[in-house]
Amino acid sequence: MGRTKHIFVTGGVVSSLGKGLTSASIGMLLQRRGLSIRMQKFDPYINVDPGTMSPYQHGEVYVLDDGSETDLDLGHYERFTNSPLSRDSNWTTGQIYQEVIKKERQGVFLGQTVQVIPHVTNEIKAAISKLAGDDVDVVITEIGGTVGDIESQPFLEAIRQFALDVGKENCLYIHLTLIPYLRAADELKTKPTQHSVGQLRQIGIQPDILICRTERPLGPDERAKIALFCNVPVEAVIEERDKDFSIYEVPLSLVDRGLDELIVRRLGLKAGKPQLDDWRELLHRIRNPKHEVAVAVVGKYAEHRDAYKSIYEALDHGGVAHYAQVRIQRIHSQAIEREGAERLLSGVDGILVPGGFGERGIEGKIQAIRFAREKRIPFLGICLGMQCAIIEFARNVLGWQAANSTEFNKDTPYPVICLLDEQMNITHKGGTMRLGAKPTKIVPGTTAEACYRQPLVWERHRHRYEFNNAYREVFTQAGLTVSGTSPDGKLVEIIEVKDHPWFVAVQFHPEFKSKPTAAHPLFAGFVGAALRRRLVPTTYTDSEIRNEGGEADPMLTGAPPNNGEEAVRR
Ligand code: GLN
After folding, report:
1. Closest atom, ligand 1, to C-alpha of 420
2. Please, what's the b/e burial string for 209-241 (b: 16 or more CB within 10 A of its CB; e: otherwise)?
3. Is 171 in the active site?
4. Beta carbons within 10 angstroms of residue 399's beta carbon
5. Strand 480-485 to 434-442 pairing
6. Which of 89, 150, 324, 397 is a plausible cystine mate for 291, CB 3.0–4.6 Å?
7. pLDDT tens string 23-61
8. How confident is the model at residue 400 (pLDDT cuts 50, 70, 90)?
9. Which of 29, 25, 564 is nearest to 248 (CA)?
10. Residue 494 belongs to what H/E stretch?
């Protein structure tokens, strides 16, 4: 097991306390003190992964390089840290049981009765140990759900046992809890926290550190009371206040409260001071924007805050690169069907159509794209957003009114988007799409090249359908540019519309690789174009500007606090 230390993060009182963000912040602070970290999350639900779950239920599905479809908290891990994430970074009850049942069928258990303790808990512990190693200082394991949930029990039992296996001195238990403020009594209430810690202690876990989410500052009396009742020293009662500006404030406020110092001391880690200069610069830009820009995200889950999580984050990063605040307008694609694009989109500087599945809301997305193309509003299409851009072009430029994707109409006379060959015979759902990081070759002289400034980029995919190559010739003749393909040239990965200030659509998901300190080049480019439209209303196209100066417009590429190009290297 070597020298690896373990941090376990649990949550109490209510869900949605920001356990993922807090875990990501802890990982980031340790990493920025020079430690090597790994992160993982256990999700107590029975689905094998969130890939088949509705965004209404679960929010966004976050895709990793290796193609695993994971919980959106892993997006926070990647945005805050450089810890390598893989299939081993997200486990569900369904996956754990699948492993146990597979072993049972193989006869691995030699006639024993297979039980939650020890067989399921052993499998959970094996998943934790998998991330440990000689080159890893700390593994941070977040337990999804709330203490007291029936589903969480095996995970909590496993992390309790884990300290017995590797030694108490090598483990640290951090419990995130809520201290509600009761207006009627004008008081912060500590009782729910006492109860949730009580529940943890009942199963044998004494938390070492309590992180207390609160909307009001915790006074010395409240901290002393929590410490006494929960059996922790006062210094281990850490306040985490609600953030006014940005989630990216969380790590800095935890530093101010001494959390990283405490963790390092408790685990006996040798670590330097945290390097946070670029992060402070990031916060400075978020707090003091020089510009404002309005971007519409037109999707069918507009009302759900988490359904396009990484897209909203990546737009913010694009804003940071330009010292701009991006005002995101979440527009329901079906509202566009009812009320028209003109009415809902007239005031915006940029339009983004994200990915999705199924027919609902498709026509509204197509109308939004038409509006962006005809009114010369900067447009970024992602995955289904690119497919809709192709359909829109076919219908309104080529005049093929019945053009469609075979996902929505199998019998369309113009199947401009059709099933990938590799998808033809697949009947199983779950993990069967074209998934994960694939290379894209960038065509010189295009807007894509101006943004990426690299000939080959790696981007993550999650789709079954693609551009139908039978139509490539006709489309390009009519003014559509194919600006990125798979290295063999067979799959269209990026398209652009000529004679438009900024119209780019991609078959992959750039939002998964954007970081606050290194905005994804396409998001920096898109927000830059939107900003240019707002500040210098002009009819120049991107290529006209490039042709004059030879160089890409710096207004479009922006200046991230860090270097944006790192985002798309392998
Ligand atoms: N439904 C489309 C496909 O399967 C797009 C998927 C997506 O946007 N992620 O190809």
Report:
1. 10
2. bbbbbbeeebeeebbebbbeebebeeebbbbbb
3. no
4. 9
5. antiparallel
6. 324
7. 999 999 999 999 999 999 999 999 988 888 888 878 899
8. very high
9. 25
10. strand 492-497
